[in-house]
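Give me a protein, keeping tokens residue-aligned:
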Amino acid sequence: MSLRRRPSRVPHLLLAASLLGALLAPSAAAASAHRSPSGEPGRTGGAGGRGLPLRVATYNIHAGAGMDGVFDLDRQTDELRSLQADVIGLQEVDRHWGSRSEWRDLAGELARRLRMHVSFAPIYSLDPAEPGGPRAEYGVAVLSRHRIVSAENHEITRLSTQDPNPVPAPAPGFGEVVVRVRGLPVHVYVTHLDYRPDPAVRVAQVADTRRIMAEDRGPKILLGDFNAEPAAPELAPLWRELADADPGAPTFPAQDPVKRIDFVTVSKNRIGVRRAWVPESLASDHRAVVADLLLRG
């Protein structure tokens, strides 16, 4: 990002719903019929028994640009639609941010096109370029076919890209929503952890994440771009409470990927992973991770 203006520290939340958003998840029969892009079932976990089916995905949309660097929201809409997910966590989401995404509200547009509810949690919310215009925002979002009954934009430790002399400090952009899946409240979180090689900020972010998630009860799903691989030491504390829905394939870069830094993770003992996979696509510089889950009340 080229802007170097100091971000607002006031958490800001956009919560919108499309008029045609579906309120119920696909049936278990429909969910079981889906296949991974290769035509074979994805990796299956030990999720036997009864439960409510839910398909979730995480996708870093690269501000609407593909692996070729070309902004193309139609291409990304098609990719997201093909996932047939009930809940999607998005990272690198622009909202009136700048020319790279044509000053558009990507979260709102994708929600309308996919007929899903949306909650947007900005990391940065800057003064408008022109008086009276919309704020320039960049952050994460959740799209959901289920009604979003509450939403919050939590602060975690960040090292700002907008401050010329940044120091680690609390800042917003850790989004949380509660959706009801056939009456069962499910907490869904979406995050984008620090990208720098030095893991120090990610260590603090993981600690913040665990503290915030510990305040909630019931089934929990954490989606996001962790900017670290599963065995990274800074991620180890997450695996005390969460299970990694391992798709068995790398996610970055989208063309000839070499590492998995994008995650679907779920609370142990409350959610089973039936299978997970990584669709092949160049619609972003990351590939998505998709997982079929079974929720237990």
Notes: Residues 1-47 have pLDDT under 50 and may be disordered.
